[in-house]
TrEMBL record:
EC number: 2.7.1.4
One MF annotation (Gene Ontology) recorded for this entry: ATP binding
Organism this protein belongs to: Oryza meridionalis
Gene3D superfamilies: 3.40.1190.20
Ranges where the Carbohydrate kinase PfkB domain occurs: 76-382
The protein's name: fructokinase
Domain of life: Eukaryota
Family: Belongs to the carbohydrate kinase PfkB family.
Pathway: Glycan biosynthesis; starch biosynthesis
InterPro entries recorded: Carboh/pur_kinase_PfkB_CS, PfkB_Carbo_kinase, PfkB_dom, Ribo/fructo_kinase, Ribokinase-like
């Protein structure tokens, strides 16, 4: 495999070179930002093993430090979608312009879930695309270090790894400004999918962001169909990021376009209001409008208050763990990781309300512990941390 040409030297003051200007979306508006076409660069020897290629610009990431392909064992949960860098202010309650410093944190909802499952001792894989750039290599390495199978991860030499700058309010809640027009994750193609990895999984987990633009939309739908046809349980967290959609109506239509293919759905109370056009998210009759005939479990998260659950047989609420929130980024993903890590080894939880409630208590603690640190992946807890927290709650 031929090496790429070396990249140009970095610009002064840490700025990206301004070889092209692309629009970036934020809070429904378009900001101009400097995002050049990604320069090719030499690959580290660890990435030069015989790998699957696509159009001579994408190469599959490997899972082993010696450059050999990842192991053939089939991960229980395959997560599909975006992997990016969150830049989080080091202090809360300031605007992006006022922030004096940012902490670089790996993120992207599906990737957060994959890492969260692995941190809890589960088996996971991630499928997506990053830029053929330093951030892309860093993210691939983070997946490896966290024991996530990354054989379905690709690098694209024509687009950067996605970035998101996050504003933190004093209560830890967030607002986002995204740099991805286009970013590498948006360019994943159907022909690049590792369908064998998907078909051998027990659970396929995905969101809605990769439904926004082509060609990733077609790849996303094909991946989910392959999972469904293979009898894999489908987990769906819409993870609404309204600024990335062209309009609220497009976002609602896009999210609901694959709603009835999911077996397990997790949404927040804000997303309930959005999808029902302003109806009361705490009204059970409103929630039940979102339960389709084949749905096995609908979960509604309520932050520190815990979550509600709805199935054909039962419904109820499980209280959360109250903590001092620093950054809520990744809390919902940690919750999803908590429940999927348990479902992936025991689907019978879906029929046993008592055991499901215990599993959801575990998932609530996963979410709570995550908000006590900045960033998503850096804050995801280990199983022992969750068990210790649960012991304190019981005590």
């Amino acid at each position: 495999m031929a090496l790429h040409a070396a990249p140009p030297p970095p610009c002064a003051a840490g700025r990206l070179p301004t070889t092209s200007r692309r629009p970036c979306f934020s809070a429904g508006r378009i900001f101009r930002c400097s995002l050049p076409a990604a320069p090719a660069r030499p690959r580290n020897a660890a990435f030069l093993a015989p790998l699957r290629t696509s159009s001579a610009v994408c190469t599959k990431a490997v899972s082993n430090s010696d450059g050999t392909p990842g192991t053939s064992s089939s991960p229980h949960v395959v997560c599909f979608g975006e992997l990016l860098i969150d830049f989080v202010p080091t202090v809360n309650g300031v605007s992006l312009a006022e922030a004096s410093a940012f902490k670089k944190a790996p993120g992207g909802a599906p990737a957060n879930v994959a890492v969260g499952i692995a941190r809890l001792g589960g088996s996971s894989a991630f499928i997506g695309k990053v830029g053929d750039d330093e951030f892309g290599y860093m993210l691939a390495d983070i997946l490896k270090k966290n024991n996530v199978n990354n054989q379905g991860l690709l690098f694209d030499a024509h687009a950067r790894t996605a970035l998101a700058f996050v504003t933190l309010r004093n209560d830890g809640e967030r607002e986002f400004m995204f740099y991805r027009n286009p970013s590498a994750d948006m360019l994943l193609e159907e022909k690049e999918l590792d369908l064998d990895l998907i078909k051998k999984a027990k659970i396929f987990h995905h969101g809605s962001i990769s439904l926004i633009t082509e060609p990733c939309k077609t790849a996303h739908i094909a991946a989910a169909k392959a999972a469904k046809d293979a009898g894999v349980l489908i987990s769906y967290d819409p993870n609404l990021r309204l600024p990335l959609w062209s309009s609220a109506d497009d976002a609602r239509d896009g999210i609901l376009s694959i709603w009835e293919t999911a077996d397990v759905i997790k949404i927040s109370e804000e997303e309930v209001s959005f999808l029902t056009k302003g109806e009361d998210p705490y009204d059970d009759s409103v929630i039940k409008k979102l339960v389709h005939p084949n749905l096995k479990l609908l979960l509604v998260t309520e932050g520190p208050e815990g979550c509600r659950y709805y199935s054909k047989e039962f419904n109820g609420r499980v209280g959360g763990l109250k903590v001092n929130a620093v950054d809520t980024t990744g809390a919902g993903d940690a919750f999803v990781a908590g429940i999927l890590s348990q479902l992936s080894v025991d689907f019978s939880l879906l029929q046993d309300e008592g055991r499901l409630r215990e599993a959801l208590k575990f998932a609530n603690v996963c979410g709570a512990l995550t908000v006590t640190e900045r960033g998503a992946i850096p804050a995801l807890p280990t199983r022992q941390q969750v068990v210790d927290a649960l012991t304190k709650v019981v005590a």
